[in-house]
Amino acid sequence: MADALHVGVNLDAFSHAISGIQALRSSVSRVFESLKDGMKNRETLEGREKIFISGFQEQLQSVNRDLNELERLSGLVGRPSESHPLHNSGLLSLDPVQDKTPLYSQLLQAYKWSNKLQYHAGLASSLLNQQSLKRSANQMGASAKRRPKVQPSTLVLPPQYVDDVISRIGRMFPDLTIELFRPNGTSAVLLVTLGKVLKAIVVMRSLFIDRTVVRGFNENVYNEDGKLDIWTKSQYQVFQKVTDHATTALLHYQLPQMPDVVVRSFMTWLRSYIKLFRQSLHKAVPVSLSALWTVPAGRTPSHLERL
User: Fold this and answer.
1) Dihedral pair phi/psi, residue 208, rounded to 5°
2) Domain identity same for 70 and 202
3) CA 107 to chain centre
4) Which ranges of the sequence are coiled-coil (predicted)?
5) How many CA atoms are closer than 13 Å to the CA of 151, on its beta-carbon side?
6) In a domain, 236, yes or no
7) What DSSP line would sit under 1-61, residue for residue?
8) Whole-angstrom Cα distance, residue 151 to residue 207?
9) Which of 58, 81, 104 delimits the end of a domain?
10) What total of structural domains would you count in the chain?
11) CA torsion, points 104, 109, 113, 114, in degrees to nearest 10?
């Protein structure tokens, strides 16, 4: 009895309430069994209906009585005392609502992105470490004793050294005409003319190639104010595709320890487009150059789509 007073719950009423719940469940089960059986084992239809309705009403009244009894007993059970220790279960009411404070889902998403970033960074590091002189298009043919000394890997190189490297590369390839501009001080911009095939604008930071744009030989490469246009794409689809390939080549030729080798390798790769319209024209239907240059943007002759 002392325990009952301390807890604040009438244990006798609590026991009777459990029995009332069981009685209510039994009466409800009988109602559903009666509905399941329906009108069986009756001779006439009228007699079956009367007996089924009377039995069903008695079962509903039994359910009503059991429910009223359970409500009466629940009022006698009482409620636990507030001084009763709830231990850690009392902290359940302090949990935040998941919809209003989705901290866990945000942390889980950030953890997934962090793992993906670490995985891709490892792949990129392994690919960049594989770059070597063997993968560069070095066609100088000079011996190891005659190679110049390794220049420091830095973005700040003397302009005189950059001019000397560009002039030496220009002398290596007679069919390449390289013009050097410095519109913003020390940064160099190269206008590379490859025969009568294309013109490439190469934007550099010291000896590191930043970006390149390839246009047709007959396209204008200057703005209205006379400066080089380094942003406008070519109006021909074939040179837009060559620009995409040049951007990929910039990512392929990476050697920070010897930036002059990177520039020379890139120019060697660009020089390979000197036969851009020769081999395919022999294999496909002959098309005049005047018809080629008049192709509007977004369309390409059938023989150029296979380039």
Assistant:
1) -100, 125
2) no
3) 18
4) none
5) 19
6) yes
7) -HHHHHHT--HHHHHHHHHHHHHHHHHHHHHHHHHHH-S-S-SSHHHHHHHHHHHHHHHHH
8) 11
9) 81
10) 2
11) 0
Q: Are residues 77 and 160 in the same domain?
A: no
DSSP-derived 3-state class of residue 287: coil
How much of the chain exceeds pLDDT 70, in percent?
68
Least confidently predicted of 2-11, 22-31, 38-47, 258-267: 2-11
Output the pLDDT for position 304: 40
Question: Can you say whether the dihedral through the CA atoms of 165, 194, 250, 209 is positive or negative?
Answer: positive
> Containing domain of residue 44, as a range?
2-81
DSSP 228: B
Count the neighbouring beta carbons within 10 Å of the beta carbon of residue 238: 20
Integer Cα distance of 278 and 273 in angstroms: 10
CATH number reported for the structural domain that contains residue 46 in this entry: 1.20.58
pLDDT at 95: 60
Task: Give the three-class secondary structure for 184.
Answer: strand
pLDDT of residue 1: 41
Q: For the segment 134-175, what is each residue's pLDDT rounded down to a tens digit?
A: 544 444 444 445 555 554 445 567 888 888 999 999 899 888
Residue at 254 is within a domain: yes
Residues 278 and 180 in one domain: yes
Let me know the angle formed at the C-alpha of 274 by 273 and 276, rounded to the nearest 5 degrees.
60
Within 8 A by CB and 6+ apart from 42, the residues are: 48, 51
Which distant-in-sequence residues (6+ apart) come within 8 Å of 111 by Cβ? none
Which tens digits make up the pLDDT trace of 180-226?
988 877 778 999 999 899 999 999 888 888 889 999 999 999 988 88
Q: 239 by DSSP, 3-state: which?
A: helix
